[in-house]
Specification:
Layout (H helix, E strand, L loop, with lengths): L4 H6 L8 H11 L2 E5 L4 E3 L7 E7 L2 E6 L5 E7 L4 E2 L1 H5 L8 E4 L3 E7 H5 L9 H26 L4 H16 L3 E3 L4 H8 L3 H13 L3 E4 L2 E4 L1
Antiparallel strand pairs: 1-8, 2-7, 3-6, 3-8, 4-5, 4-7, 9-11, 10-11
Helix pairs in contact: 5-6
Length: 219
Amino acid sequence: MEKYFEVLRKCPLFVGIADEHIFKMINCLGAVLETFDKKYTIIAEGNPAKFIGILLSGSAQIEQVDYYGNRTIMGRVEPSQLFSEEFACAERESVPVSVIANEPCEVLLVDCNHILHTCHNNCSFHQQMIFNLMKNMATKNIVYHQKMEITSKRTTREKLLAYLMFCAKEAASNSFEIPYDRQELADFLEVDRSGLSAEISKLRKEGILQSTKNHFELL
């Protein structure tokens, strides 16, 4: 586990916890290290909501598929980030989304009950960890609200521009990269891919933006 130390230090779950306590905490929580290949389902929709995941390496996507097979990308997970914590803490009978590996991933899986209920050792840092978990879920709630603001726009053009302006604001620059290819961006915005590509071409011709693959510049 030593090779993941720097990643774990950046994990929201361990904010404010001394370095020397991090591995002690992982042992106390009974965390399990798992490895997943590209495109492998880390957590499947419909499975019991029990585990909180910490991504140690690689990247993953949070996806939801409707009755007709249409995919919606809910978000992306990068190293040190948590996933599935809101469902595990809510004690949902099943997870309503799937977490898919974009590339080979290493993940630390923690039983949520081991976090929410203090152990017999009465670890002094356990209350800090519970506070960190609640704060991280509140932050994610804000992010999901921002996504709803984007996807609630009426047209593909409005959704795309709202998303790109949000990315530019986050990057503090009019030139930035997004974490999605064209199909993934269409699934994130909940629009048709061909319509999205056509709209990007129109915006280029109108001199509103420039783009190369996943790099965009707002003019």
